[in-house]
Amino acid sequence: MAAEVTIGTRGSKLALWQANWVKAHLEDLHKDIRVTLTIIKTKGDKILDVPLAKVGGKGLFVKEIEEALLDGRVDIAVHSMKDMPAEIPAGLTIGAIPEREVPVDVLIARMGRPLKQLGPAPRIGTSSLRRAAQLRHARPDVIITPLRGNLDTRLRKLAEEKLDAIVLAAAGVKRLGLAERITEYLSPEVMLPAVGQGALCLETRSDDPLITPLMAPLNHPATRWAVLAERAFLTRLEGGCQVPIAGHAVLDGHHLSMTGLVADVEGRTVVRQTLDGPAENAETIGLTLAERLLEQGARSILDSLQTEIHS
C-alpha cells in the first residue's frame, strides 16, 4: 500500500497551484507515496478589509498551517517564501526550496501603459508598503489605493475601481497562466522584490525521517543560496509586512550578489546597497548588507516606523 503524505496549503487559486505542483513532483519522484491536500484558512485569508501593515503580527499567511504541521495533521506545508517570517518555530525547518520563478514585480495597467507613461497622478493599487514606497520614489505623483485579495480579485478591482494600474508578483501571474495581462516587468532598479519572492518554501518537521528524504530532490541549490542570503538580511532587520524592506540575491556560478533596500513609507528616503561574495557565505552576505544599511540610515527609518506602529 502507498504511503500517505499530506500537504497543508491555503485555499487560494495560486496556493493550490503551488501545492499541486509539489504534489505532482513528489508523486512522480516517489511512486510508492500518495499525496493529498488539506486546505487551511490563515489569519491573512480571513482579514481582507484591512491593509496587511495594519493587521500586525508575523506569519499572517503561514501560522495556522505551521500549527497543523507541528501537531501532525499535515506532513508538508507549501508556502510562498515571501510570506515566511524571519524566524521559524522550533521543531520546524525549511525542507526544500525548489527552483525560483521570475522574482520581479509586474505592472498591469488598465490601458496598457508602462509606469513612466501613465498619466499624471496615476491611481495604482497595492497594499504592500514595499511596493508603495518604491512607486512613490519612482513617481512622486502616484496615488496609492489599498488593494487586498487574491489575484483574480485584484484584477477585477483594476477594472471595477477604474485604477490606472496594479502591481503584482510576476511569479503568481505566470503560474496562473496570465502572463498576457502583464504590461511591464518592473526592473529591480525601479522595484526591488521582496525577500524570497518567486520562491516556494516546503516546510517540514525537523525530526521527520520519512519526509526529509522525500523533499531532497526538490531542492534547488542556487535558489537556496539566494534565499538564505535574503532571509538572513530580513532576520537582521527584523522586518515584516509593516516595514518597506526589499532584498534580492542573484547567483552567478559560485558568486552571489545581493541588493538590499529600506525606505520610508512615502518613498522620500531610500537606503540601498549591493554586496557581493562567494555563495557559501550567503548568510554572512545578507547579515553584513543589513548592517551596512542600518549604518547608512536604515536604523532611523525603522525606528520611526516602529514608533508610528505602536503610537
Please name the defining characteristics of this protein.
single chain, 311 residues, alpha/beta, D-Maltodextrin-Binding Protein, domain 2, Double Stranded RNA Binding Domain, 3 domains, five-stranded mixed beta sheet, 10 helices, 35% helix, globular
Commentary on this structure:
- With 311 residues, this protein is an alpha/beta fold.
- It folds into 3 domains: 1-98 and 199-219, Periplasmic binding protein-like II (D-Maltodextrin-Binding Protein, domain 2, 3-Layer(aba) Sandwich), CATH 3.40.190; 105-186, D-Maltodextrin-Binding Protein, domain 2, CATH 3.40.190.10; 220-311, Double Stranded RNA Binding Domain (2-Layer Sandwich).
- It has helices at residues 13-29, 43-46, 52-55, 63-70, 129-138, 151-160, 170-175, 211-215, 221-237, 282-310, and strands at 3-9, 33-39, 76-80, 92-96, 105-109, 123-125, 143-145, 165-169, 184-186, 200-205, 245-252, 255-263, 270-278.
- A 5-stranded mixed β-sheet has the order 2-1-3-10-4, sandwiched between helices. Strands 7-6-8-5-9 form a 5-stranded mixed β-sheet, sandwiched between helices. A 3-stranded antiparallel β-sheet has the order 11-12-13.
- It is globular.
| Helix/sheet category | alpha/beta
Report the mean per-residue pLDDT as an integer.
Answer: 92
- Rg: 19 Å
Distance between the termini: 58 Å
Overall shape: it is globular
Number of continuous helical runs:
10
Quickly give the CATH architecture of the largest domain. Answer: 3-Layer(aba) Sandwich
What is the CATH superfamily of the largest domain?
A: Periplasmic binding protein-like II
Order of helices and strands: EHEHHHEEEEHEHEHEEHHEEEH
Largest sheet features: 5 strands, mixed
CATH topology of the largest domain: D-Maltodextrin-Binding Protein, domain 2
Strand order of the largest sheet: 2-1-3-10-4
How much helix is in the residues?
25-40%
Query: How many structural domains does the protein architecture include?
Result: 3
Strand content: 15-25%
Unreliable runs: none
